[in-house]
Design a protein that fits this description.
Strand content: 35-45%
Strand order of the largest sheet: 5-13-12-9
CATH topology of the largest domain: Immunoglobulin-like
Number of domains: 2
Distance between the termini: 56 Å
CATH architecture of the largest domain: Sandwich
Helix content: under 10%
Order of helices and strands: EEEEEEEEEEEEEE
Length: 176
């Protein structure tokens, strides 16, 4: 049984009435009720149970993939996890996204919140990008990390996500 529910968002709740009945296949019988009819029918011999409750609906929210650049102008994107500095991460304006529409209050990079952000053209394409700075020691990265992800929302509420490669340095003893 399925129901169409319009305009439902993740986290919304609404009352639903569910009716269940207790029966088994023994209640389906072959029956000839009148001349010319020969078929099956269901005869209910159980108890209807009615209750109300709440069903939680999780609606998958589409995620817009955005282009990010960790440490713009740097390749590889080397990060020393012992650094007491910040790591710059840019959300680039593309044909699909104007970086100015990103809500900076929702942005998280490798589990860290930005300490500041500015609008500037970091990739030299003439379009303004949103450049965030994150405290290195707040990043949820390890020596084995090879990528890091930025998440957030656009001003229209759509979720955004972008991933770029990282090179963690220096590696521990005996590591390459």
């Amino acid at each position: 049984m399925s129901y169409a529910v319009l305009n439902v968002s993740d986290g919304d709740t609404f009352p639903v009435q569910i009716k269940a009945r207790d029966f088994n296949d023994d209640y389906v019988q072959s029956y000839t009720g009148y001349e010319g009819y020969d078929g099956e029918y269901s005869q209910y011999r159980g108890l209807w149970i009615t209750d109300t409750g709440v069903i939680y609906v999780t609606v998958p929210v589409p995620v817009i993939e955005v282009e990010i650049d960790i440490k713009p102008g740097s390749d590889p994107n080397s990060i020393n996890l012992k650094s007491k500095g910040v790591v710059p991460v840019a959300v680039l304006t593309t044909d699909d996204l104007d970086a100015n529409t990103v809500d900076p209050d929702t942005v998280v990079f490798a589990s860290a919140l930005p300490v500041r952000w500015t609008m500037e053209d970091v990739d030299g394409d003439g379009k303004m990008d949103m450049l965030f700075h994150f405290k290195t020691q707040e990043l949820n990265l390890t020596e084995d990390s090879t990528s890091a992800t930025l998440t957030g929302e656009a001003l229209d509420g759509m979720s955004i996500q972008g991933t770029d490669t990282v090179n963690i340095v220096p590696k521990g003893k005996g590591r390459e």
